[in-house]
Amino acid sequence: MPKYTFQSFLAAFALLVSVSAAAQTVTDVPLQDTAVKTKSTAAAQSAAAAAASDAAKKVPTAEEIAAERARLERMRAALAAERAALEQYKADLVRRQQEAAAASARAKEEAEAKIAAEIKAAGSAASIPPPAKDDPVSAKTLSPEELQRQRQLAIERARAIEKAVATQKAADAKKKAAAAAQTTTPKDKDVATMKLRRITQDKVRYVHLRDVAVNYGLTFAYTKKSNKISGAVIYDKTRKAVLSATYREGTVNGVQVHFLYPILIKNNEPYISEVDFLTCLDPLLRYKTAIKLGMKTIMIDAGHGGSDPGAMNGTHKEKAYTLQIAKRLQTQLEKLGFRVIMTRTGDTYPTLQDRAALCKKYKPDLYISIHCNSSTNKTPSGIETYRVVPVGGTETKGSKVKTEKQSANEFDANNSRLAYEMQKGMLAATGATDRGIRHQAIYVIANATCPAVLLEVGYLSNAAELKKIASPEYQNKIVSGILAGLAGYGSFLR
Asked: Which helix (H) or strand (E) holds 213?
């Protein structure tokens, strides 16, 4: 036999003997005695080392190898038996625990039955039985007065038990109602049934803001600046609206909202314009919409195109990025089962009238127009969402009151909620600056035949934001934000 083969054989045999000794030691150790296991393991290691030394001095015969293999098989069988015993022990433990739980439940039921029996037996003094004949304190040893007192005590004890049970049942019912309230969406009041004080100032109709807070179950508080009233806030645990008496800007649930008018403080009382209340604040404070609309078909309008490049920064053109984002959104919506209609799929230019005509022709449930922003100032950045300005309101960047109703004004409340959900979703997905929900008479959304919004997803004039908008990763974030907004709006509809 070659030298290296002989040495390999010796090493293998030593390892075989070591495993055998360790297996024998583990088999003999009780499962629940950790200290003995540790000691036996150490002894097994010493024995293995000694066996390896002895094996190196002696060349085993074929019969010895076969015998050792057989012994190892027995050890494996013993280990398997130990494992099976352990599994059986675990199963028995689980069974005993289940039996204990069942016994506890039976004991509880018996105790409750006993209490019920005592309550039933305590209906009147006549129902309290006299002491038994073998009772050391028998009726013969008690005076009539004492017997009556004992019976009265029994009645009082039973009534106390009955009262305790009733109190516990009431507490359980209260807990159950509280749990149900947490999982059930609260109901909104119909605006028509609300009792709201109204005044008119400079031809604008206003609603008392405290009354609004009361009807929504919200707390009212003034905000102050330099010790003067600067605005108001209405809030509860899940909703909060902050309004200014100086500016149109405010926030609803943390999202910036450009209201149509500042709130009015008159005789130290706060008022919100009625058009702001009905078309902006009310839709954002509601849990569910009062107007149920579908959202199976969505029209996506990629802004500009063809001969109209839109905003530009060097070779970067708005029309290219709006189409890229629109196509990414189309893909995701179709995967989710929506029917999607595109106003353009290539570098073409449908006119504004063409886009409005497509909306009128296909009658989608929602209209989403995608754009990129730009400014002569290179600093501004962030996301804006536009909805059509309601009749009686003013554009965010203007002061002229709108008097003419357009087709999209039929959906003012839904436009507002859709814009809010879109803005909220995109901000969460991108981390961009919140430039707010705004109002403008933009042709394509003003002439839509369904709820419609126009999204300004960022500024091409801002170098840092342009770099983001040009990247597929950021475009996907924008799309994710739009999808989240659609999910929020869909929840509002149900």
From this structure: helix 209-215
Under a CB-based contact definition with an 8 Å cutoff, are residues 398 and 427 in contact? no
CA 295/CA 490 separation, integer angstroms: 7
Residue 161's alpha-carbon distances to 112, 119, 131, in angstroms, are 11, 7, 21
Q: Where are the beta strands (DSSP E) in 95-183?
A: none
Cα–Cα–Cα angle for 277, 252, 296, nearest 5°? Answer: 85
Q: Please, are residues 479 and 285 in contact by the beta-carbon 8 Å criterion?
A: no
**Cα distance between residue 363 and residue 452, in whole Å:** 12
Distance (Å, rounded) from C-alpha 126 to C-alpha 133?
A: 18
Token pair 């039929």 is at which residue?
410
Q: What is the pLDDT of residue 316?
A: 97
* Per-residue pLDDT at 185: 60
Residues 6+ apart with CB under 8 A from 203: none
Residue 30 in any domain: the answer is: yes
Verdict on whether the full-model pTM lies above 0.85: no
Nearest to 366 by CA among 322, 410, 426, 415: 415
Residue finishing a domain among 41, 74, 92: 92
Q: What is the DSSP letter of 228?
A: E
Domain hosting residue 232, numbered range: 191-285
Percent of the chain residues past pLDDT 90, beyond the cut:
57
Residue 87 in tokens = 């599994």
Residue 391 CA to residue 388 CA, distance in Å, equals 9
Instruction: Report the alpha-carbon distance of residue 127 to residue 353 in Å, rounded.
Output: 90
Sign of CA dihedral 189, 190, 192, 198: positive
